[in-house]
Specification:
Layout (H helix, E strand, L loop, with lengths): L1 E6 L2 E6 L9 H13 L6 E5 L3 E3 L4 H27 L5 E5 L2 E3 L1 H7 L3 E5 L5 E2 L2 H4 L5 H10 L2 H10 L5 H6 L5 E3 L4 H13 L3 H35 L1 H15 L3
Parallel strand pairs: 2-3, 3-5, 4-6, 5-7, 6-8, 7-9
Antiparallel strand pairs: 1-2
Helix pairs in contact: 1-2, 2-9, 2-10, 5-9
């Protein structure tokens, strides 16, 4: 599921789960566990195999598993995002392909995000699928996207190529095809050269609004969100979306 290598003392994690690195219970648990093991690493670069960084939540598995699966899955997804977004060391996302919905959020958990020009699209499609955002996921979007674009990216469910993604805050840098990982490694080296204690404290301060937003009403919001995800109508929206997009042709 996750390939690990070390380049110049930087840990590189390659997401390798199916064709598009879709997020299911087992993959989320494995990736969260890997990040938990790397809390003392100098820095971490995260990339996807093939043409996708991550296409997001495995909607086929979700629709087939129904409400029981949803209630097991959402806490695991929360744990994954929580583990990465509050990871004390530098995390850089090398977006070498599509990063959609939950995959976009996975990238947004990183401290810096590099995307290859013309190598994919990025954005959150949750409302197009018919699902509200879990509380922590919404706070991560709000932290990444400038306020003037927040309504657009949320309500439209649009996905963006690199230039538009840079303007909207989904990414920090555009790389030429083939240079994404090397550029991500360069950023990771730069950040890892900083004082680890100073970096960790500064990152904690930068992430505090996310923590505060979740602490305020996150659990209550997530109870409502979970109920909506489990509704028969929502599962119907998911199945319709899968039929319309993932299975066409």
């Amino acid at each position: 599921m996750i390939e690990v290598e070390t380049v110049d003392d930087i840990v590189v994690l390659t997401l390798s789960h199916g064709k598009v690195n879709a997020l299911d219970i087992e993959f989320c648990e494995a990736l969260a566990a890997r990040f938990a093991e790397l809390r003392s690493a100098k820095a971490v670069v995260m990339k996807g195999q093939g043409r996708a960084f991550s296409a997001g939540v495995d909607l086929i598995r979700l629709s087939e598993g129904g409400a029981d699966y949803v209630r097991r899955f959402l806490p695991v997804l929360h744990k994954l995002y929580e583990t990465i977004v509050f990871h004390p060391r530098p995390v850089v996302a090398a977006i070498n392909g599509h990063a959609i919905a939950g995959g976009c959020l996975l990238a947004a958990c990183a401290d810096r995000r590099v995307m290859g020009r013309g190598q994919g699209r990025i954005g959150v499609t949750e409302l197009q699928v018919g699902l509200p955002f879990p509380s922590l996921a919404f706070a991560i979007v709000r932290a990444a996207v400038p306020a003037r674009y927040l309504a657009e990216v949320i309500y439209s469910g649009a996905t963006y190529e690199s230039d538009a993604a840079l303007e909207r805050g989904w990414i920090d840098q555009i790389s030429e095809p083939g240079a994404v990982v090397e550029d991500a490694l360069a950023i990771a080296r730069e950040l890892s050269a900083l004082s680890p204690a100073a970096f960790a404290q500064t990152k904690q301060q930068m992430r505090q609004p996310i923590a505060d937003a979740y602490a305020k009403d996150g659990r209550a919001v997530d109870r409502t969100v979970t109920d909506i995800w489990c509704e028969p109508a929502s599962l119907g929206y998911i199945r319709a979306y899968v039929a319309r997009t993932l299975k066409k042709g």
